[in-house]
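hey can u check if this looks right to u? its 109 residues, i copy pasted from the old doc so theres a chance i mangled smth
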Amino acid sequence: MYKHNHLLSFCFRFGRDSWQKSPFGTAVSFVIMSYFSFLLNRKFTFGSDFSYDKLLRFLAVSAIGFTLNFLIMFLVVNVLSLHYSIGELVTTLVIPIIDFILNNYWTFK
């Protein structure tokens, strides 16, 4: 995990410094994190074999989580006019549960 954090930090800095504060580094970090998350979840959480179908399903679930994160944060901050920390709390509580359910019953079934 320690090296993983350095990789994410590098990607964020690369995106921020080299691309004039664009979300490029965040997007690269998200893709890398999703792949390693798939490998770790496949082996340790669900004890499943590797297949490209499972990888594609996992990436679809990750994209759903990413989209839900955006929508919840937008709703909490821009529509409800609440502090962004409340949105962070809601997304931290809701999205992992949804991701686990989708991965358990669809990705790694």
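The chain has a mean pLDDT of 83.
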